[in-house]
TrEMBL record:
Membrane-spanning residues: 79-100, 107-126, 132-153, 165-189, 195-214, 226-245, 257-273, 294-321, 327-348, 360-378, 384-410, 431-450, 456-480
Pfam families (alphabetical): MFS_1
Gene3D superfamilies found in the cross-reference section: MFS general substrate transporter like domains, Multidrug resistance protein D
GO CC annotation, single: plasma membrane
Protein name as it appears in the record: MFS transporter
Domain Major facilitator superfamily (MFS) profile positions: 41-487
Organism: Phenylobacterium hankyongense
Amino acid sequence: MRRADTLAEELIEQPILDAAAVESIPAPAAAQAGAGRNWLVPAIIGSALMMQTLEATVISNALPTIARAMHEDPLRLNMAITMFLLASAVFLPVSGWVADKFGAKRVFMLSIVLFAVSSAACGFAQTLPELVVGRIFQGMAAAMMAPVGRLVLLRTTAKSELIGAMSVLTMPALLGPVIGPVLGGFIVTYFNWRWIFYINLPVALVGVLLVRAYVPNVKEQAVSPIDLVGIVLTGVGLASLIFGFENLGRSVLPPPAVAGLFAFSALSLGLYWRHARGNPHAILDLSIFRIRTFSASVTGGAFMRIAMGATPFLLAMLLQIGFGMSAFAAGLMTFISAAGALLMKTVAPPILRRFGFRKVLIVNAVIVGVSFMAYSLFKPSTPHWLIMIVLAVGGLFRSLQFTSLNGLAYADIGQDRMSRASTTSAMAQQVVQSVGIGLAAALIHILMLARGETHLTAGAVSPAFLIVGLVSLVSIAWFVPLPADAGDDMNGRGRA
């Protein structure tokens, strides 16, 4: 394999697969090796995924405005996000099976169409329940879109090229967070908030045409029977867990009912663990967690992703309600964080090649955790340029942590287990992000009660950043035990 020595060569050159690398790819992917070399497939998949990232950042910034339009408490609007993530988590376990059964390309295209239709339904919503229903269908589509798109990439790319290919995949997707806050803020400030959903329609149309023309149809030769028992147990368990965090510390449900949700979740997930032991057709292969690199990425990275999931919601509450900014002004402030993340995606591969996964994850976890805590120091009198610098630095290093975690997850996964590994990783990310949003809303509610306040203020939001920053640092406990050469075959350090 020819190695690129500079960033430009890493992203532009088209490395030639050697015989060993081609043999390590399943037959359908090997036939498409040429498509993987010029990064066309990851770029197209990433562009389709831009709808999801655009929608996520747009709706986070628009929540206060939608709450006023629907005459709802802003904290209740977090249901529009958590229900999306809940639906994604519940339907994610079947995404790999569906892609294997009907072909990843066909499923990817259908998921884009469903995402567009449900976006239109959200735009027509008149009440919070109607909006939540539309978001649930969006989550169902996203459950198929992201992991199936990633699965196509994993099966059409040599393992040694995955870091570079993933960087290309995430670049278009990161444009959503870059333009989302500004675009969404502009729409809800100067137009109608419903247009934040309608903008998905032209993106979906272009995405379907590109996928149909260029993305290969990767399909397994043999498909295992669908695990209906596993689907029910994981769906019920995850739904109970997320609803529990949604109502933690709030007066919607009595404390015994919330405790019952957590207990029922533990029971359902425990039954699934027993069901999956020794079951070769289990919807989620829990034995993957015995692989140290995968466990560190998914389990350890969960604490980091909880904080990352909570941050957009907390920033929207702080800047718009706490500081009284318009959605457009807040979007102009926060887009710099995504711009920093996009910049880091271009330099992440050489950083990982130079220092290795373990060292980057440990040191960067501290930097990211401190950046979360720094947000708690923001005041209405803080200069805007200073806030933007802190947000940019935080986005820069959070992006590096995301790239490192996503790459490490597949470092020791064989091609025959890529489908399940992709599904399990994506499901865990959706769950912990929804937990992060529910935790953020619960923290704000508890802090309001502790301060004796009946209305949301900046003083009730700022301490929440300190707490989620401390939560993110727990991930270091999984990174320290990793061997120094963990994932070296993926970032180029293990190659002669």
